[in-house]
Amino acid sequence: MTHLHPAGIKPGRTSCAVSRYRPPAGPRRSGSHRRGFVQNGVISITVTMRILHGRFVQRFPHFLWNNTAGMNGSAPTRLVDPLEDPLPGVGTYEDFNTIDWVREKSKDRDRHREIANKSRQSTWALLRSISDAFSGWLLMLLVGLKTGAIAGGIDIAAHWLTDMKEGVCLIGFWFNHEHCCWTSNETTFQERDRCPQWQSWAELITGTSEGAFAYIVNYLMYLFWALLFAFLAVSLVRAFAPYACGSGIPEIKTILSGFIIRGYLGKWTLIIKTITLVLAVSSGLSLGKEGPLVHVACCCANILCHRFAKYRKNEAKRREVLSAAAAVGVSVAFGAPIGGVLFSLEEVSYYFPLKTLWRSFFAALVAAFTLRSINPFGNSRLVLFYVEFHAPWHLVELGPFILLGIFGGLWGAMFIKANIYWCKIRKSTCLGRYPVTEVLVVTALTGLLAYPNSYTRMSGPELISELFNDCSLLDSSQLCGYSVGNTLGDRPAGPGLYTALWQLALALVFKMLITVITFGMKVPSGLFIPSMLAYYHHDWVIFKGWCSPGADCITPGLYAMVGAAACLGGVTRMTVSLVVIMFELTGGLEYIVPLMAATMTSKWVADAFGREGIYEAHIRLNGYPFLEPKEEFEHNSLAVDVMRPRRADPSLAVLTQDGMTVGEVEVSNSTDYSGFPVVVSAESQRLVGFVLRRDLLISIDNARKRQEGVVSASQVVFTDHAPSLPADAPPPLRLRGIVDLSPFTVTDHTPMDITVDIFRKLGLRQCLVTHNGRLLGIITKKDILKHMAQIANRDPDSILFN
């Protein structure tokens, strides 16, 4: 027996051990072995009917001490029953570890089966069964209510602080600009936002709002408030909740795949993320609150899960709730409950059963209703940029829509490469060591360049609302600056419109560049949606024959909406959910085809430059152990090519089923290996099972504390029956209960594409490789990710966790 090569990965902040912890339960049932073998090139994974029907029993660390009077002359020692005396730490997971999906789902099935059996015995047990079945829906109700309330508060606070950069309301400083002028009778049609109750900082300080000095005062106050908000945001994140920075969606995707990140969905993260999200958006940085709201919703769900034992004690069940919470986050961000459900299904969820679909729909409905009841924007809508178009689109416009899709795909591919390049610079240089300085510099640069242009000065939702607006005869927007005419279709473009278009073109370039360096900073940040604008002239040749005088030829707001969808689709590679979100924004069925054409074109063009979206690119950048379900494995390698140890490596560290002492096992446990295969003997290498290092440590430590006679010379036995020992020998320590007697195995000639599918669909963390029943090596999730990175000509050492 040797202990020279790891059966897992070293734990820590930069690499993490594979751990499989077993919760307390009764003795193991028989018939649980499953085997993999290859015959004539065809893989056959043999799994017993108990596995197929969810009867995979729980393994519980229990200790049977063969300490009889006939052996050493003393009275029999009481057996330790973990059901009565559970061991602390067993059944839980360490930080930066992947959960055991098979065990968690099996544990939930056993729990449900036990509740169902007891419900037939008494009325009280029946009521408990009903309560257990209803608890999931109650939890979804609470998640929707809490997230909707928080989202409403974020919207109100962000709108107020954004307006505070430009002035203050005299009748109440807590009113934003729009609310302050609602009750005023002195507003005009051309200057509907000006009223005596609202004064700019120049008016308060100098007494006038005109002139160069007043402009400079307003400019400086704008920069002051922007820097103050940004400084507070980054300082709070750095001091109290480092996990509150960024979008959160890459980490949410990784967590939903089974990874453990302690504290990422905790209460401090929720509190700081909520506060700093308001500050970051109000500072004027080129970021949005859509992604962070998904993180906020998942934090709410995770905290509420601890109120229900069914979800508190089962990591797989908790991830079903988190999948529904992701739908809730998008529901309150875009005012699109159905789009939120599809977003969770298409973009973030790793395991999405039908039951989760229903509960996601219900939770998104509750959240949308809660936000609508709060009415944060005062327009009876869920979002500030809700629009409603009525003009039909023409078939000839399909070409421009496809061109917008091409632009969106090119922009998405360029943005991902540029942002990842900048993030690598941030991580590898001294820039990453000074996050506060970076945020302040970017905020100052953004404020200096944004203030002179009214379209970059306004907040993201206000800009999108302006662009999505459909011009009417009474509209005073600069984008509707047409010369006087009887009908809107007959009015030629005026000088104000051309000025607005130049400003908008500059705003587009500015937003494209500044968003690259803003996304990924140490503040809560979502992706700003770059928007496009079109204007029209019905005398052009291409419009003759289908654009009659006096009629609305095209809808500029529709082009802005299609351009925004194309750009967001190129960055995130969303398709179905994005179209539904935009449909829910507009409320018009007739615009589904333009949106579908632009979104699909955008994805095709962006995929030509790389198949990763922005979230997958950041997952890879951070080294998270995420097996992308949409990524195909096309290499012809076999399991023997990926397993460890390799041909030139030392042999695999194993434990024998008997013959080892407690001292020898403790020496093995002094390593950083995550677990050890158990074999019949070091010579035969016939596989018996797999035992986790953490379970061994807990078991031996518990035995030394609770049992007399356990010493370093005590023999450790992983079998049902202890071997015969001399009369003066210490009692053996039987640890068969902590051994996984049915570890997933494949043969050395199993194709790696089959192995990767097994890891994806069963959520495995490690798989043993055998040849004719003889142990050869082990494949972990990290090994597969490193192999895939090597095939793609990427650095295998970039995979930090397992």
Automatic annotation (TrEMBL):
UniProt xrefs under Gene3D superfamilies: 3.90.1280.20, Clc chloride channel
UniProt-annotated stretches for the region Disordered: 1-35
InterPro entries, sorted: CBS_dom (IPR000644), CBS_dom_sf (IPR046342), Cl-channel_core (IPR014743), ClC (IPR001807)
Domain of life: Eukaryota
Keywords, alphabetical: CBS domain, Chloride, Endosome, Ion transport, Membrane, Transmembrane, Transmembrane helix, Transport
Keyword Ion transport appears in the UniProt entry: yes
Location within or outside the cell: Endosome membrane; Membrane
SMART domains listed in its UniProt record: CBS (SM00116)
PROSITE patterns per UniProt: CBS (PS51371)
Record-annotated CBS domain positions: 738-796
Pfam families xrefs: CBS (PF00571), Voltage_CLC (PF00654)
GO cellular component entries: early endosome; endosome membrane; Golgi apparatus; plasma membrane; synaptic vesicle
Record-linked SUPFAM superfamilies: CBS-domain pair, Clc chloride channel
Transmembrane segments: 219-244, 321-344, 401-422, 500-521
Topology in membrane: Multi-pass membrane protein
GO molecular function, one term: voltage-gated chloride channel activity
The keyword Hydrolase belongs to this UniProt entry's keyword annotation: no
Family: Belongs to the chloride channel (TC 2.A.49) family.
Name of the protein in question: Chloride channel protein
Gene assigned in the entry: clcn5b
